[in-house]
Design a protein that fits this description.
With 228 residues, the chain is α+β, with helices and mostly antiparallel strands. It is built from three helices and nine strands, in the order αββαββββββαβ. The longest helix is centred in the first third of the chain and has 26 residues. The relative contact order is 0.13.
Amino acid sequence: MSTTTGTVPESTEQQTPAPKSIVRQPVVRRRRPGFIAMAVALIAVGIGANAWLYMSTGDREPVVAIAHDVPMGAQLTADDLVEARIATDPVLHPVPASQIKKMIGKRTTVGLTKGSLLTSQAISDQPLIKQGKELVGVSLSSAQLPASTLSPGQKVNVVHTPKNNGADSDSGGSSKDTTVHAVVIEVGRADNSGDRVVDLAVSALDGTTLAQWSANGEASLVVVPTGN
């Protein structure tokens, strides 16, 4: 009995080759000394700024400030004053907040603006209208006032401007008395016609004369240059 040796058939399936391993090259990071130094400097600046801000905001003291505009010669009330906290400065000499109640009733020697600090030089126990002076309210049109803004404490001259161009009239005073020296105390708001009342401090001798000029509309105001 003969044995027949057959050929083993080849497999039709192709074998998949094994994937090649990827060799990763190590990433070499370059250090940049300039950027490192800059980062360190920025951090140092930030720390210094925070320290300065903390010290400047922490070293503050309560003082008296002005709540709204207050004209010269006004008597201070509780509504005029508020407490504020500021950084200490040897140049500033504001009134401490602990004395805010003592400031009520005092008169201002200058006009005070909202947000400003109250100083001892800006207030007085003495009345603004001193002995021998009178307060006269003079009604003036826009043509009788300078275009520049008047402020309390400003020195002015009131000039007699008679409508009939006469030297003497029943408005009071002689032909030689044509100018009255005065100090602005307060400037009123303009009405619908543009006229406004200006409170002026004048000598007792000129008070009646100035009131008569104002009543007849025969007064014009001239600003005295600073230093005169």
